[in-house]
Amino acid sequence: MRKFFNFLGLAAIILSTTLFSCDKDDTKDSEINKCNVTNPIEELAWLNEEIENVIEDEYSYYNMASYQGQTVFFYGNCHPAINYVSIVRNCTGDSLDLTINVYDELTEITTIWKHENTECNFAD
């Protein structure tokens, strides 16, 4: 009987160590940073160029999200009188789809750039 309890105790220790050694943050970081860059705005030339094109627009912003297991980016504009088309792009800047077509499938949406005096109302 004593061997059984020793075995049970050892199994509990191994199980606890295994379960607690998994860190959710490591998975989340790798999901968010699949482009293999620290700062996508500075390190992805195409994204930097896109932001430079709208840098003076107080209504413009760029979001990063997850879509079908990959990191994606898309433009946004909160001007009440403007009608625009936004495209979801992957890490290399390739167009994947119109944002309106896949918005419900986007997860982990994060605003990565906005004008310093933005007119948009972001819930931080």
Automatic annotation (TrEMBL):
<feature type="signal peptide">
    <location>
        <begin position="1"/>
        <end position="21"/>
    </location>
</feature>
<protein>
    <submittedName>
        <fullName>Uncharacterized protein</fullName>
    </submittedName>
</protein>
<keyword id="KW-0732">Signal</keyword>
